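User: I've been trying to design a sequence by hand for this structure and keep getting stuck. Would you show me what you'd pick, starting by listing the structure so we're on the same page?

Assistant: Good idea, let's start from the same input. This is the structure you sent:
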């Protein structure tokens, strides 16, 4: 317990410093903010669904309602940016809706933001491009998942604790350095008793409960990736490959809403 709080304190201090530095840099470039979501429609994105394919969405899994991106889970898939991006700070504000769908009706609400997405639509599991995922799931928001082909084409390196959580390594500043070409790296305080059940809440969760807004920042700076959730750094990786690509937001059986998806360019590292 003391170890978790100590790590948390270190990360919060690091978060304040890092966020301040990014804020100072990004403030000078406010005119360069790319509003990936314009509040009106999904211009700049296309849909891809596992069964329906590209730009075919008969069940309206993806729509804009009351100025928000509404993602249902009737069919698994994603929205994908038309453009590719490199060196940026992505700021997304999201909250969970109440609906869930088969096969995850009773499972933890699940989504994800996929960065540096490259290759064919559906290249991974017939649903998503291969990519580096910043996970959004109840109890595990901020995890990294390498959605690759088990080669060095998609990889990341980070520092991890010796003990695993939910059979996955856990990010720990100053821990053992480890390279990943597949699998997951849990955020630093993911609950050891995590269960894939709807509404799960961990003892040290930073994500807010269902129905409340969260702010998730994904900073892609050269070959580094940092995830900040509600103001606290929860995960960090380096030697990331690739370092550019499309951005995808998943539909995975749970209703979720996004009211902001902004991209602030960063100078080349």
């Amino acid at each position: 317990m003391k170890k978790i709080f100590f790590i948390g304190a270190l990360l919060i201090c690091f978060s304040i410093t890092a966020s301040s530095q990014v804020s100072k840099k990004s403030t000078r470039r406010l005119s360069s903010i790319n509003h990936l979501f314009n509040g009106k429609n999904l211009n700049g994105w296309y849909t891809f669904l596992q069964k329906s394919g590209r730009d075919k969405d008969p069940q309206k899994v993806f729509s804009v309602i009351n100025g928000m991106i509404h993602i249902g889970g009737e069919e698994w898939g994603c929205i994908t940016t038309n453009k590719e991006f490199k060196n940026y700070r992505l700021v997304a504000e999201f909250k969970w809706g109440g609906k869930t769908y088969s096969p995850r009706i009773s499972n933890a609400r699940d989504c994800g933001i996929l960065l540096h997405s490259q290759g064919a639509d559906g290249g991974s599991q017939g649903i998503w491009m291969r990519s580096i995922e910043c996970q959004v799931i109840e109890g595990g928001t901020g995890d990294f998942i390498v959605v690759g082909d088990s080669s060095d084409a998609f990889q990341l390196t980070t520092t991890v604790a010796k003990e695993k959580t939910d059979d996955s390594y856990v990010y720990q500043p100053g821990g053992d350095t480890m390279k990943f070409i597949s699998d997951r790296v849990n955020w630093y305080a993911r609950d050891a008793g995590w269960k894939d059940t709807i509404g799960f809440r961990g003892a040290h969760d930073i994500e807010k409960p269902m129905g409340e807004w969260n702010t998730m920042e994904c900073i892609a700076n050269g070959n580094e990736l940092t995830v900040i959730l509600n103001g606290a750094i929860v995960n960090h990786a380096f030697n990331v490959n690739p370092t550019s690509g499309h951005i995808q937001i998943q539909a995975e059986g749970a209703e979720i809403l996004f009211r902001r998806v902004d991209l602030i360019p960063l100078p080349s590292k």
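That's my pick for every position. To get oriented when you compare it with your attempt: The CA atoms of residues 14 and 233 lie 7 Å apart. DSSP finds one helix and 20 strands in the chain.
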